Amino acid sequence: MKVTINDVAKHAGVSMKTVSRVINKEPSVRKKTYDIVMQAVKELNYQPNTAARNLAGTSSFAIGLVYDNPNAYYIIDMQNGVLSRCKEEGYELVIHPCSASDPDMQQEIATMIQRSRLAGLVLTPPLSEQKHIIQMLDDLGITYVRLLSGQNNDPEKEQGSTAEHRHNNCIYVDDYAAAYEITEHLINLGHKTIAFACGDAEHKSTTERLAGYKQALDDNQLEFNDALVYGGTYSFESGVEGAKALLKNNNESGITAILGGNDEIAAGALFASRLMNIAIPEQLSISGFEDSPFSRQTWPKLTTAHQANSVISEHAARLLFSKTRGSRSHDKDIITTFTPSVVIRESTGPAPK
Amino acid sequence: MKVTINDVAKHAGVSMKTVSRVINKEPSVRKKTYDIVMQAVKELNYQPNTAARNLAGTSSFAIGLVYDNPNAYYIIDMQNGVLSRCKEEGYELVIHPCSASDPDMQQEIATMIQRSRLAGLVLTPPLSEQKHIIQMLDDLGITYVRLLSGQNNDPEKEQGSTAEHRHNNCIYVDDYAAAYEITEHLINLGHKTIAFACGDAEHKSTTERLAGYKQALDDNQLEFNDALVYGGTYSFESGVEGAKALLKNNNESGITAILGGNDEIAAGALFASRLMNIAIPEQLSISGFEDSPFSRQTWPKLTTAHQANSVISEHAARLLFSKTRGSRSHDKDIITTFTPSVVIRESTGPAPK
DNA sequence: TTAATTTTTGACACCGGTATCATAAAATAT
DNA sequence: ATATTTTATGATACCGGTGTCAAAAATTAA
User: Fold this and answer.
1) Residue B58 CA to nucleotide D20 C1', Å?
2) CA B10 → C1' C13, Å?
3) A93 touches chain B (CB under 8 A)
């Protein structure tokens, strides 16, 4: 029933080590031998036993994906992107949802790494931003890749000694640029009083998006007003609350557009507007951020910044693999900075007079 | 740095086999010995190496979760439920998204099982309903649990010989009852012309929900009308199309309520109503099914049938473990049939006169 | 108290690969 | 053609646990 490397070796008339070489695509195997072995592999339908490889090898054929993020769409995209690369490389994926509020989190991650002898880790925000996690991974000496909000400027310069400053293992999403772009879109529509309903303050993405928004205002001679910024979380409920707070007293601030920290916030704002009988986009424009499927399922559909999460995570995995194995993959194919692009739908329109 | 079972054995002054017994909670270890070993485990912070256990043991300490379902919320819940049980049991989870349209799917699943020597598999619909998959798993002799739509009636009677008829490895969601309940809710609100926007026809859940709907109509002396059933898919877009089709020609059929096959369909119907300037719930009631977070983020919020996906999947994992290991867990704690319960929100209301 | 039985524990051979290093074969130089 | 270098292959010792079976210790019976 189950075929082992020895069966293949016998069938092909070579040693088991040669079979091992072939399936691991090691160099220095003659073309002819390679073909013979592959033939045997096919004929016997041989599947290398993961456990055995993991045990015998220096590191296992598995990587981990760690996340602390309640956004289902985001997570699924992350998983799928990483999985597709894993499949390509013949690796397994160990997923690890966790919660920053859990005091054992750090220990748990360490345990997981140790038990499964993971070859590497992909960290998504906001975990990827936490110093103590990074510190721990460095202490453990494990390879990892971080998904971050920001830009990968001056890579040479950034090769700092401390982990937080070493940026050659990061994939960036340029939220700053995207927020700038989307704010500009609103400005171009004639909006002058644009509010921003932020996500969690601790997330780097919030800071970045806020900065991009500010810069866009500034570059267009619009004054930044602190009262137009609502600090919340990346959730629908926060969007509802945010919109209510921003538009209080019959919109005394004269807001004509709200930039949502993400699609959920925007959807919440949409919901609140509905409650307050505000027509979108005639009386108020609302934009989201991320372009999750969600943004196409609201009324009206959301203008947002498209973020190709599964592509991003696939590249994160690519980068990770380029660091673990003898970098079989070409680092050059790896994109390390992604900039979401504005997708215009029906939730934004010309500013009312 | 890394602690092995031998280190623990030495530290505790016992043989490595005894340590193995302790960490596997095997019987016939004296309390005193057990304590000594556990003490050593703690002191050294020993983590058993998964790969080694998998290799040496009869089956590996990992189970698989296979799904072909585009619904992110659903998948995340499934994963989390199964994961929580895995954590409890010290197992790993191998996730495997796949697509029925992929001709290699079956082979891929077989490969995964073989490579990772999975101890078992949890199958979610619609994969869990496909005969050829079940057949294959049986041929492979692997343990699995299926999540199905239906009821677990007459368990004794059902112990048929063919896999499709063996139902002691299934967890049921009673969509029939839930659909009945939700339809009745609409009827009680005075609705007499209730449409049903179905999900994918091949899904058992569609058949079940439809049957429950029909029965409720019947029990309340309302005639079933084929023209009021729209056959679509479990997607937002389908909900939009479905509502448009059902309400065509200025709602010539006089529909006052639409039962959505799931929340996404309902959200789509909501969207379409908006397009057609139909007020919800004043002119038309719409209900969803599943109670995904989604149903709380539409306007108005959806009346729906709450389905505790993460609990369901946790029980699926429970059931699986009860079959794989020496059934350490008590089968009696396992619920095998779940009935979603109606959650009333704002998308349904009294029928218009 | 000793024999018989049951419960605990340990020695050791695997599980199915990879890593190392020696050896054989092929390519190149002399 | 032979010596030398390079490249391809194989023998064998692990990796860190589990399973088997026999030995030792603890219980119970006689």
Assistant:
1) 13
2) 21
3) yes
Closest CA relative to residue A128, chosen from A87, A85, A93, A173: A173
Q: Identify the band that residue B166 occupies on the pLDDT scale cut at 50, 70 and 90.
A: low
CA dist list (Å): A125 to A106, A138, A147, A203, B93 = 15, 18, 6, 7, 22
Domains of chain B with CATH codes: 5-56 (1.10.260.40), 62-174+309-338 (3.40.50.2300), 175-307 (3.40.50.2300)
Contact A4/B at CB under 8 A: no
Whole-number Å distance between alpha carbons of A72 and A292: 10
pLDDT in tens, B31-61: 999 999 999 999 999 999 999 999 998 888 8
B20 CB below 7 A from strand C atoms:
no
pLDDT-derived band at B104 (thresholds 50, 70, 90) equals confident
Question: CA triplet B202, B203, B205: central angle to 5 degrees?
Answer: 145
Q: How far apart are the first and last CA of chain B?
A: 76
Which pLDDT score, from 0 to 100, does residue B157 have? Answer: 47
C-alpha–C-alpha distance, residues B128 and A37, integer Å:
36
Reported as a single tens digit per residue, the pLDDT across A96-140 is: 999 888 888 988 898 888 888 899 999 999 999 999 999 999 988
A53 CB neighbours strand C below 7 A: yes
Predicted TM-score of the model (pTM) = 0.91
Q: What angle do CA A286, A290, A213 make, to 5 degrees?
A: 60
Provide the greatest CA pair distance for chain B. 84
**What is the reported pLDDT for A157?**
47
Considering only CA atoms, give the Rg of chain A. Answer: 25
CB atoms B50 and A75 under 8 Å: no
Instruction: Give the CA diameter of chain A.
Output: 84
Report the run of H or E that residue B65 belongs to, with start and end: strand B62-67
Interface test with B, best of A115, A241, A286, A310 (most B CBs within 10 A): A115
Nearest CA in chain A to B274: A299
Of the CA atoms within 13 Å of residue A37, those in its CB half-sphere come to 21
Question: Is the pLDDT at A233 greater than 90, yes or no?
Answer: yes
Supply the pLDDT for residue B295.
92
Per cent of chain B over pLDDT 70 is 93
Which of B7, B299, B346 has the highest number of chain A CBs within 10 A, making it the mutation to test binding with A?
A: B299
Q: Where are the beta strands (DSSP E) in chain A?
A: 62-67, 92-97, 120-123, 144-149, 170-173, 194-198, 229-231, 257-260, 285-287, 304-306, 337-338, 341-343
